Amino acid sequence: MAIRLSGTKLIFVLAGIGAVGGLTSAVISAQKQPPQPPAFEPATNPYADGIFANGIIESDQPHASNVNIYPEVSGIVTDVLVRAGQPVKHGDPLVQIDDRVQRATTEQLEAQAQAAKAMLEELRAQPRPETLVVSEAQLVAAEASAKLAHDTYDKQQHAYDADPHAVSRDALDTARNAWLVAEANRATAQRNLELTKAGAWIYDIRNQEATYQSLVKSALSART
Prior knowledge:
The protein is mostly helical. It is built from five helices and four strands; from the N terminus they run αββββαααα. The protein has a domain at 103-223. Helix content is 61%, strand content 5%. It has a two-stranded antiparallel sheet. A two-stranded antiparallel sheet has the order 3-4. It is elongated, with a radius of gyration of 48 Å.
């Protein structure tokens, strides 16, 4: 037996099917899906209280613009010096950043500057009196050795001139060479004494001055 639906009944049937389908979709959509697990473990806050933020200061004036704020150096905020809604002006501190690393760097640069200054003063104070005394004593000893070697050679030369068989030629040459070596040592001691008296080289002083000034400026910059 064939059942035929009239046009009006067909419309009602389709409307009912549509209403059921819409209700079913609404019920399914209303169900809360469980959250997906994170792709990786997020970083944890190592402090009991902390804020991770990046933003702007919003102006409450109609024609003013927002102000971007950012510190010149990165670090941990140890104290917030203003509260929400508080009026501030140029130069007012907003937050306090942990400056232990900066302070340690500053102290290190200042110590290096003091060491460079001490070296500069040492160069300018040359010659050191104790060093000068040592150089003078070395010259006296070298002069005595040279005189002794020269006297020994003279004696052997006179003996050889009087009787060539009294002193061998080899002994005479050895005495002469010893005198020449002693004389060279005396000349070296003389030059060393002159160098000691001259003090530090001017170029060494200038280089140390530049090093000291550079460290002073670096320390001032770090302290700022």
